[in-house]
Each structure stands twice: as C-alpha cells, then as structure tokens.
Amino acid sequence: MPHAILIANPAAGRGRALAIAQRAEAQLQAGGWTSELLVSRAPGDARALAESCAPAQVVLAVGGDGTVFEVLNGLIGAGRELNIGTLPAGSGNSLALDVGLTNGEQAIERVLAKQTRPIDVIKATLDGIVHHAINVIGWGAAARITTRSEGLRWARGLRYDLATLCEILRPRLIPGATRIDGKCDENELLGVAALTQHSGRGMRVAPSALLDDGLLDVVTIRRGFRPKLIALLVRVHSGKHLTSPLVQHRQTARMEMHLEDDSGIVIDGEWLPGRELTLEVMPRRARLWA
Predict the structure, then answer these.
(1) Which of 14, 58, 128, 156 is most deeply buried (CB count within 10 A of its CB)?
(2) How many Cβ atoms are within 10 Å of 74's Cβ, its own excluded?
C-alpha cells in the first residue's frame, strides 16, 4: 500500500494544523493509503523529523511556508528523493496558492489521484551556509516586514499588509543599498527572488514566475513618495505593480548579492542573519504532489 508521512506544525494556523493533519490521515486511509503523523515541537524540529522519517511515497508538510521550508531542507539533508506536498495551514501559504490549493481536503484529493509535477528548487548560500527554498527569498524592507509581522499575528490575514504599511510609514525609509551581481542601487527599498508568484498572505509579488522554468523572478522596489508606495502595496495583491517606474523586474538562473546592512534575509518565510548571498536554481529538482 502507498504510504505518506505527514509532518505538522501544531502552532500553524492558530492551532488548526493538527486537526487538518488528523482529517488528512482519515482521508488517506479511506483512499487505501497508510500514513504516519509526526508533530514538531519547536522551530527546526520539522526539519529533523523529515531527515529521520521512514521511507514514503510522499512527505506532506502541514503548516505554512516555514514548515515547507523545514521539510524540504530535512529531506535534502538526508539525501532523500524530494517527493513533497503541502497541506495549507499557516499564515503564509505561497506554494499552495500558486497551485490552487485552498484546504487540506483538496490537497489530499490530489495526492490520492497521484497528481504530481516537477518544480525547481533554489540553492541559497548565505555566508557560506547552504539552504534550499521553493518559494520566495526577500531582503531589505522585505526582511524587516517579515520580522515585524511576527508581532502582528493577532491581525491574522492582514498582518503582512499591516507590517508593510508600518514599514512604509516609518519616520525614515531605509534603503537596502544592496549590491546585486556587482551593481549597487542605493535607493533600493526591498527586493525578492521568487519561484512562486505569491508571497506572504496572497501578495502576487512575482506575477510572471513559474515553478518549473529554471528561472528566478527578481523584483525590486525603489524608494519613492509614501503615497505612491502605499498605492503600490494595493497593486501588489493583483500583480499589477510591475509597470510602476519604482519597480524593476528581471529573470535569471543565478545571482550574487551583498547586503550593506543587518536586515538579514527571509528564505521561504524564515528570517536568517547574513550579508553574502548566492542564489542558484536547481531545475526540476523536486516533485510536488499537488
């Protein structure tokens, strides 16, 4: 019988993830699958569980982008095949949004139908340490917005919007002064390198991104008048911001970056300290069950 491992973050979705995982197990059993539910207890635990879990047709991350990030890196660290799925249960579900998944039942239906597709993986080397990602990597104000949003979880679906608005309205806008591939824009406010179109809670930050084209979509936003930046925030949700003169967009399979400040980097929703970053696309390295 086919077997699935579910790795759940019980803190995700204000405690909903565990119930979603339990319903998924019943749904898998009804569909003729066996399963095992593993529950993380602390940050980094989902990665350790993915490294040590038993062999399975697919490993399903039950949580948000951070849970997917940990499971992905755990499987790579153990040298396992990357058969991965996601049951959206977190505050940010970028990968699920890109493939049209809105709930756990729908995700399991696709697993039972063995609906799979190859997807790219990002190899991100930050200050000499290698991480892997399948969503979005952000820097500058994007990193500060993520850390600020952690204190706004009470706002639920609006926390990323509120964090962005707080960043825009701060007394002094902090430019990123990021050097990308040897070129520095001292007026850059934030940037992202994306495989997924979505980031945060449904922001369509990279509307032309594809999961399997071997390319990163790099979107940067420069400093501007605050009313224009607020208007740009509204346009990001619909993906109509790329036409703004404050926005630059390009595609690349590899990029090198040096940060001039200590804002750090956000990799698939997880903030990490560092300044020297190299990103490389590993084409179709994983298989997504979705």
Answers:
(1) 58
(2) 23
- The residue out of 58, 84, 114 marking a domain boundary is 114
Residue 240 CA to residue 235 CA, distance in Å, equals 5
Q: In the predicted model, is pLDDT for residue 208 greater than 60?
A: yes
> Do 173 and 109 share a domain, yes or no?
no
Please tell me whether residues 150 and 48 are part of one structural domain.
Answer: no
Same domain, 107 and 151: no
CATH number of the domain where residue 48 is located = 3.40.50.10330
Taking the C-alpha atoms of residue 263 and residue 31, their distance in angstroms, rounded to an integer, is 47
User: For position 142, which CATH number holds?
Assistant: 2.60.200.40
**Neighbouring C-alpha atoms within 13 Å toward the C-beta of 151:** 7
| 119, part of any domain | no
Pairing of strands 58-63, 83-88: parallel
Within-domain flag for 289: no
- Residue 171 has a pLDDT of 56
Q: Beta-carbon neighbour count of residue 217 at 10 Å?
A: 23
Same domain, 20 and 105: yes
State pLDDT tens for residues 113-161.
999 999 999 999 999 999 999 999 999 888 887 777 766 667 666 766 7
Side by side, which strands form the sheet with 247-252?
Answer: 247-252, 216-222, 188-194, 136-140, 265-267, 270-272
Phi-psi region of 127 (alpha: psi -120 to 50; beta: other; left: phi over 0): left
